[in-house]
Amino acid sequence: MRDSIRKLEVRVEIAPSRPLRLVVAALILRKGAGGTEVFICQRKPDQPMSLKWEFPGGKIEPGEGPEEALARELNEELGIAADIGERVAQIRHKYRNGGAVDLQFFVVKQFRGPLENRIFNDMRWAPLATLPEYDFLAADLGLIRDLSEGKLLEKI
Ligand SMILES: Nc1nc2c([nH]c(=O)n2[C@H]2C[C@H](O)[C@@H](COP(=O)(O)OP(=O)(O)OP(=O)(O)O)O2)c(=O)[nH]1
């Protein structure tokens, strides 16, 4: 009995202090003159990881499914009603200062409403080949490389 209590205490001590954040983000796509473009957003100067570029989205709230969470975030951040499409990537990343994230990326090809900037420092459509020119969040860098080389979306 005492042994099992001791084991339990040890487990509590080594439990991770920062939980894994479950995050969903959108690759909102359109056809541009020079090929496919994706919608990218820049974080504000007063946010953690300030001025880094990212794909719109955010944390899944308790009780939400990933698609539901992403539709909510896109409505809150950009004022659009989006049709959430195929999940094309999942990435786990440990930030040096801020714990770990589990990121799921979904394609969005259709949405209703004009894109409004409600929370970002800047936002724009970027041709896939130009993505490496932007200072993206570290977790996104593998995805950025694949997108810019035309690897990930070839079947879409
Ligand atoms: N939306 C979005 N978040 C991303 C991307 N890549 C990446 O590492 N993240 C991280 C940054 C944040 O830690 C988290 C998203 O959380 P959030 O949007 O709900 O809130 P936040 O930026 O204020 O972050 P936090 O300080 O509350 O953790 O996921 C991405 O491409 N898009």
TrEMBL record:
GO biological process: DNA repair; DNA replication
Nucleotide-binding among keywords: no
Residue span, Nudix hydrolase domain: 19-149
Cofactor dependence: Mg(2+)
GO molecular function: 8-oxo-7,8-dihydrodeoxyguanosine triphosphate pyrophosphatase activity; 8-oxo-7,8-dihydroguanosine triphosphate pyrophosphatase activity; 8-oxo-dGDP phosphatase activity; 8-oxo-GDP phosphatase activity; metal ion binding
Reactions the enzyme catalyzes: 8-oxo-GTP + H2O = 8-oxo-GMP + diphosphate + H(+); 8-oxo-dGTP + H2O = 8-oxo-dGMP + diphosphate + H(+)
Assigned EC number: 3.6.1.55
Tagged with keyword Magnesium: yes
Entry-linked PROSITE patterns: NUDIX, NUDIX_BOX
Gene3D superfamilies found in the cross-reference section: Nucleoside Triphosphate Pyrophosphohydrolase
UniProt KW keywords: DNA damage, DNA repair, DNA replication, Hydrolase, Magnesium, Metal-binding, Mutator protein
Similarity-based family: Belongs to the Nudix hydrolase family.
Name the record gives this protein: 8-oxo-dGTP diphosphatase
